[in-house]
Amino acid sequence: MKNVTDSFVSLGHWPSAGSFGFNTDILATNLINLSVVLGVLVFFGKGVLSDLLDNRKQRILNTIRNSEELRGGAIEQLEKARTRLRKVEMEADQFRVNGYSEIERERLNFINSTSKTLKQLENYKNETINFEQQRAINQVRQRVFQQALQGALGTLSSCLNNELHLRTIRDNIGMLGAITD
């Protein structure tokens, strides 16, 4: 502090009372200039600085208020989304369960249908085999009968002569006539 007062006192010690000069003491002049500038800034800038700080404070408070409102809205939307998600998950589980039961039902229907079709095909196969067996048996019978008839005719024709043949025909015709009367 003594240096500051010495600086002011040294103003009176300038060599010429009416002349203007420079003070070469850097520390003293810087402190004077700095104190003058600070004094002016405090005096005139106090209101401006206070207004700037108040405005800044209001903007920060408004931003915080807006952020809180947005946060509240975001939390509300998050809860709604979670509720919707739970609902969709329950519906998906229900669809999954219904889908699995529907798939199982369709699988059982398909198995039953296939089983019935296989039984029908088995029955058709057995009927076809029986039909083919009967047809084959009938064909064999016809061939055996034809061969037996041909053998019998061959035996008869070799054993019978014309006279015996005519007599057999007459006897058979007589028997037929007696049956029709």
From TrEMBL:
<dbReference type="GO" id="GO:0046933">
    <property type="term" value="F:proton-transporting ATP synthase activity, rotational mechanism"/>
</dbReference>
<dbReference type="Pfam" id="PF00430">
    <property type="entry name" value="ATP-synt_B"/>
</dbReference>
<keyword id="KW-0406">Ion transport</keyword>
<keyword id="KW-0066">ATP synthesis</keyword>
<feature type="transmembrane region" description="Helical">
    <location>
        <begin position="26"/>
        <end position="49"/>
    </location>
</feature>
<keyword id="KW-1133">Transmembrane helix</keyword>
<keyword id="KW-0472">Membrane</keyword>
<keyword id="KW-0934">Plastid</keyword>
<comment type="function">
    <text>Component of the F(0) channel, it forms part of the peripheral stalk, linking F(1) to F(0).</text>
</comment>
<keyword id="KW-0138">CF(0)</keyword>
<comment type="function">
    <text>F(1)F(0) ATP synthase produces ATP from ADP in the presence of a proton or sodium gradient. F-type ATPases consist of two structural domains, F(1) containing the extramembraneous catalytic core and F(0) containing the membrane proton channel, linked together by a central stalk and a peripheral stalk. During catalysis, ATP synthesis in the catalytic domain of F(1) is coupled via a rotary mechanism of the central stalk subunits to proton translocation.</text>
</comment>
<keyword id="KW-0175">Coiled coil</keyword>
<dbReference type="InterPro" id="IPR002146">
    <property type="entry name" value="ATP_synth_b/b'su_bac/chlpt"/>
</dbReference>
<keyword id="KW-0813">Transport</keyword>
<keyword id="KW-0375">Hydrogen ion transport</keyword>
<comment type="subunit">
    <text>F-type ATPases have 2 components, F(1) - the catalytic core - and F(0) - the membrane proton channel. F(1) has five subunits: alpha(3), beta(3), gamma(1), delta(1), epsilon(1). F(0) has four main subunits: a(1), b(1), b'(1) and c(10-14). The alpha and beta chains form an alternating ring which encloses part of the gamma chain. F(1) is attached to F(0) by a central stalk formed by the gamma and epsilon chains, while a peripheral stalk is formed by the delta, b and b' chains.</text>
</comment>
<protein>
    <recommendedName>
        <fullName>ATP synthase subunit b, chloroplastic</fullName>
    </recommendedName>
</protein>
<dbReference type="GO" id="GO:0045259">
    <property type="term" value="C:proton-transporting ATP synthase complex"/>
</dbReference>
<keyword id="KW-0150">Chloroplast</keyword>
<keyword id="KW-0793">Thylakoid</keyword>
<keyword id="KW-0812">Transmembrane</keyword>
<feature type="coiled-coil region">
    <location>
        <begin position="71"/>
        <end position="98"/>
    </location>
</feature>
<comment type="similarity">
    <text>Belongs to the ATPase B chain family.</text>
</comment>
<dbReference type="GO" id="GO:0009535">
    <property type="term" value="C:chloroplast thylakoid membrane"/>
</dbReference>
